[in-house]
Each structure stands twice: as C-alpha cells, then as structure tokens.
Amino acid sequence: MDIRESLVACIMGADRAGANELLVEWGQRNGYGTLLSEVLEPVMRDIGELWMSPEGISLAQAYIAAKVAEDILDKIVSVHQISQLKSRGPVVIGNIEDDFHALGRRMVGTFLRAEGWEVHDLGNDVPAVDLVDQAVVVGARVIGVSAMMRTTADNIRAVRTELDRRGLTGRIQLAVGGAVFVIRPELVQTVGGDGTARNALEAPALFEKLQARACGENTHE
Amino acid sequence: MNSRERVMAMVAGEPTDRPVFSATLSLYGAALTGCPLQRYYTDPNAYSAGQDAIAQAFASDIIFTPFSVPIEGEVYGSRVAFFEDQPPNIVRPAISSSKEIASLQTPDVESHPRLMYIRDTLRMLVSAHRSQRAIAGIALSPMDSPLMIMGIEGWMETVLFDPQGVRSMLDVTGPFFVRWVNSLLSDGADFIVLPVGMLSPSVVTRQIAEDVTRPALAEALAEVNGPVVLHHTGGSCMRHLDLFAGLPNVIGVVIDSRDDPGEAREILGPDMVLFAGPSGPDMPEYTAEQITADCAERLVERHGDPRFVLATTAADVPLATRAENIHAMRRAVQAQAGGKC
After folding, report:
1. Do both A116 and A71 map to the same domain?
2. Which among A121, B30, B207, B272 could bridge B40 via Cys, Cβ 3.0 to 4.6 Å?
C-alpha cells in the first residue's frame, strides 16, 4: 500500500496519529519538498471522491481529513518550504452574523490553504459590512460565507446588499456554504450567492471558478 | 380503539384497527394557534394549546413534548436564539473544549426553569390527552447532549482525540440524562424518543459508534425506568442499524425516509417498533397526492408487520407545511384500514 492509500485508510479510520506517523516516515525518506503535490493533493482528491460516493463519509472522517491537511501544511511550513504553495490570492471567509457553527468554515479554510489561498478567516458571527470591508482591504475577489441554519442563511442577503451598494457586484464574488445549502440548494440564489460547494473539499474549486469569474468580469469593465 | 389503545396494542404486537401514524408536529402546533415561537417554546400553556389543536386537527396517535433539544445545552449555560419560523437553536455553546468540562454545573431537574417548562408542558399534555393518545417525551442521549453544551467542533475534537475528556463529559451528562429521562417518565410520558446522532454513520465511524457511543448508551439506558425509541436524527442509519438493537429499554427505532423498512426489519428483528415514512422537514415540498401515494406504498410494503408505524422522520414538520399534506398521511392509514379512523 503506498502513502496515499495508507493515508486515506487512516483518515477513513479516523486515525490522525497513524496518519502523522506515515507523514513523518515519508518526509524523512523523501523530504517534505513534494509533500503537497505528491501526497496532500491526491489524498484530498481521493477523500473528495469518497465524500461524494453514495455511502459518503462521516463528519468524523471529514474532520480528520481537515486535521491531516493541517498537519501536512504545518510540516511544510516547519521546514520553510512555504514557497512551494501555489499562490492563488487572498480570500475572506466567515460565518455570517448570528451563526456560530464554525466547523464547516474551519474545514473550508484548511482546504483553501492547502490549495495555496491566502485565507483571511474572520470567525463566527461576522457582520456583512466587516466581510466586505476586509475583502476590499486585502484585495480578495471572493468572500466565502457560511451558515448552518435556514434563518441565519437569510442574514447572508446583507452581504449581497453591501456588495451591490458599493458597486462591487461581480468584482467580488460571494460563495455561500453550510448544511442548509446542501439540503436546500435553491437558497443560494435566494440569499444572493454566486455559487456554493457541496462539501468543504469542493470549496477550493468553487473559489477558483469564482475568482476567474470576478477577474473576467473586471477586465470587461 | 382510540389512539392510545392502538399504540399500546402495536407495541405489544397485537392487532390494531388501523396502522399507527405519528407525525412530528411539535413545532406545527404554533402554526395552528398562531403563537409566536419564543412564547411557544417558553410558556407551557402556549405549547399545550398548540398540541390540543394538533390533536383536534390531525388525530395523530402520538403527541410530543417540545422538540427543542437545545434546551439541554441552555441549562448548562449555552446561549439559545429564538426564530420566527423554526425551533430555537444554540448560538453560543456553554464551553468550547474538554478543558472546561469541570466548570459545568449540572442543572436540577426539579427546579431549573427551562426544564420545568418541559415538565409542566408534559403534565398538561398528560392531563389533556393521555386517556386518548400516547405521549412521547424527547431527550438527548448523554453522547449527544454535549453537542449542545460544547458545540459540534468541540465535541468532535473530544471524541476523536481526548478519551479522558469523553469520560469526564459522560460523568456529567450520563447521570443528568438518567435523572431527566426518568423525571419525564414519572410525569407521564409513555416513552422517550432519543435522537442519537452520535450513533449515525453520517456523523461517526463504525469504530466510534461501537467503542464509544454504544457503551455509553448501554450504561445510561440500563438505568432508565421506561421504554425508549432511538431516532436516526438525520441521514441514513442503515450501516449502523445493528448497533441500535439490543440496547436496554429500547423498544423501537425511527429510520430515515430513504432507508428501506424491509431491510431495517430484518436487521432489528420482529420485536422492535419500526417508525418509517416521509421526511418531516421535506413535507412542504410535496403535494398531498404525493404524500398519500408514498405512505400507501410504505403501508402496503409493511402490511402484516404488527410493529410498523407510519411516521414522519428526521426533524419537525415545518410551519410552512400545508395542513392537507399532514391530512394526507392520515388518509393513507385510513385507506389501509378500509376507511376506519
């Protein structure tokens, strides 16, 4: 069994310690220089496929996947090889005002970092104005807003309104996510979102698509 | 045969005049009385009036105490928010990590105002309906109430990486669970419905379910003085359904709307009550005709199963559900019995 298969097995068995042993062993043998491209990316791709399979994966396994991704990133950072991370630009994420369900947002942040995004995580219960202010300050072209419940999802409308009010429509894209959007995908449009992902592992692809759209729209102005 | 007699006969595996039907209409009582939800979930009179209206309108065989499990976090200090169109929810957990478990103060089931709201409500329901219908209390298992006390992330982190933290938390929630559930049974609940997300394959691995959740449930349930029905919470429970069986005092299981009742019956055996039917939260999305057809199909498939209950599954039926959709469930069971109520 190669490192990728072994890591996937550890994640599916919720065995973070076992995953770390594998990573250390692999790093000592091969160095950490290619850990991202040869280990993390393919492993997360495999986990993503399992997540979308009919049986899916449990919340515990998704949580372990995020922790293992964090561990890999920490190992890369610890040997000063940050430069190998692709630089995709800044993004702003946060749970919308009145929403305190951080788990999904934190997992999204981890997977975005693993894909080379500069993540500005504003935490829980973030007013719409703060999300837009931060995006303007750091030059983010995508804001990712999370909500778990139907009622807090409605608060995301304020981000849409704020973007439109400042003339940022299209130039800053609004990604929305959280359990309620998986159950009711039509809510994305209702709250003014520009896109959503079905799970945290799909978030980097969504952000890449939205960033491309934002930049494309900007060049036409 | 009234609803209560029907439910008791069904549990005993004896013949009934028609299949038992149970819609989770805890929230929906507020739709019938027009009660603002903050009052509904804090005033026993308001909740009880809502369930009186439910009983009158739909003739559901089972009536529920408030399906508001965040109260089990609120009593430890979690902050709860009230909403206009859904039950209350936790907005800030009492603690965020296992390091803070020692700071938790166990609430007194005889005096805490939020617990007394539930108990006073239950006593009213018992007084008004127990001669006619079965009354179900709703509580959280000692492995699930920590989700309300420390949030999903805090509890997941603890379960995955901190076995001593799990033990410490269970030392708090286990004894409370026993006292709380037994108080509901002594107040007149016929059985307790226990959402067990921490046993679900959508939440935990098989190993956690087997090695952590199930032993904790077995220990706590052994001290409960009455029957318990385990609830799938949300998502399929089939891959772990064998773990739902054989626990002390458990007489039944609510499975997901997408789960196969025939397969579930094979796993659970003939003596367990099997609750299955359309998803409660999805009820507004269907037409009445679709619900009748769906329920009729399930009833035909389970014809001859004496311990089958046609039930809404997952969470509460939303306020926005058209009343005719709930009547459609009742019509299906009546049709199955040749028009008898």
Report:
1. no
2. B30
CATH code of the domain containing A18: 1.10.1240.10
Extract long-range pairs of A187-190: CB within 8 Å, 24+ residues apart.
A187/A150, A187/A153
A125 and A102 in a common domain: yes
> Which of A42, A63, A84 is the last residue before a domain boundary?
A84
CA of B275, closest CA in chain A: separation in Å? 22
Block means of pLDDT (10 residues each) for chain B, 341 residues, are 97 96 97 98 98 95 97 97 88 93 97 98 98 98 97 93 97 98 98 97 95 98 98 93 97 96 98 97 92 96 96 94 96 85 56
* A23, A67: one domain: yes
Angle, nearest 10°, between helix axes A128-138 and A157-165?
Answer: 50
Residues of A in contact with B200 (CB under 8 A): 58
Full domain range(s) for residue A160: 89-219
Query: Which residue bears the tokens 């009880």?
Result: B48
| CATH number of B134's domain | 3.20.20.210
Distances (CA, A) of A62 to A22, B161, B240, B338: 19, 14, 18, 49
Say whether residue A63 is in contact with chain B using an 8 A CB cutoff: yes
Domain count, chain B: 1
Do A159 and A210 reside in the same domain of the chain?
Answer: yes
With an 8 Å Cβ cutoff, are A151 and B84 in contact? Answer: yes
Q: Please list every residue in chain B whose beta carbon sits closer than 8 Å to the beta carbon of residue A55.
A: 201, 239
What is the ipTM, given to two decimal places? 0.91
- The verdict on A102 and A184 lying in the same domain is yes
Domain span at B66: 3-336
CB contact under 8 A, A61 and B90: no
Tokens 């800044």: give the residue.
A90
Is A64 in Cβ contact with B203 (below 8 Å)?
Answer: no
> Which residue of A98, A125, A151 is in closest CB contact with B85?
A151
Q: Cβ contact (<8 Å) for B204 and A16?
A: no
- Interchain pair A13, B86: CB under 8 A: no
Strand order across the B134-138 sheet: B20-22, B308-311, B273-276, B250-254, B228-231, B191-195, B134-138, B62-64
Q: In chain B, which residue's Cα lies nearest the Cα of A62?
A: B203
Could you tell me if A77 and A111 lie in one domain? no
A77 & A104 share domain: no
pTM > 0.90: yes or no: no
